[in-house]
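In this section we walk through a basic example: taking a raw amino acid sequence and producing a predicted 3D structure, encoded as discrete structure tokens. The instruction is simple. Fold the sequence below.
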Amino acid sequence: MLLDGAHLVSTAIRSGISLRHAAVASDALDVPEIRELCLELENRLVPMIAVSASVMAAMSPVRSASAIVALARRPQVTRDDVFQGHSPLVVIACDVQDPGNIGALVRVAEAAGATGAIVSGTSADPFGWKALRASMGSGLRLPVSVCSTAATAVADARRHGCRIVATVPAGGRSLFDSDLSGAPAILVGGEGAGLPPVLVSDADERVTIPMAPSVESLNTAMSGAIVLYEVLRRRTGP
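The resulting token sequence is shown next.
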């Protein structure tokens, strides 16, 4: 996976991610943050090369090229790792195709105290550069599992004692009146289409976030954030 920028490279080092190669812009070698990061990479025997601004512009995928990039091995996460603890809290992304939404979901999942995230179906790669940048490093810390189908992810969640909570734009119980006790696995559907009807009908709880009548739905990542923080609010008390 490509780690673009000093923040992700630094997070990978602190998270014990195996780095394979690194490249740094030669005109950034005197920047204190970059210089310290290069020393850390040298101490870890990570092969590193200084490159010109034009080469870095070709290597870094963002519009204004980053000062440092690295190639790293993906975190080794099993499908059981996301359900750690006596009361797991998991978010399952189903066919969420925008990598920015995937990264934001992973970021808010870690922030809300989730034990892990599952990315399923035709969802974007959670370890693609854009999703990793959107996660602000959470994708390197929180256990994130990739599953071929949402049905398999739901089956895994049930096997670990989770209650399946499907988010729907309308027709569900109000989020504030819903049952989010125990070990909820929050199902979040893709942009536009939402969750497949079969997943909604098989869920233990179907929740709808109250909205003004003029608003049809919320952004995928925003919906996941609101539900996850409602779980956190109830778990931590007033």
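Looking at the output, two observations stand out. The chain has two domains: 2-72, 81-236. The mean pLDDT is 95. In the next section we compare this with other chains.
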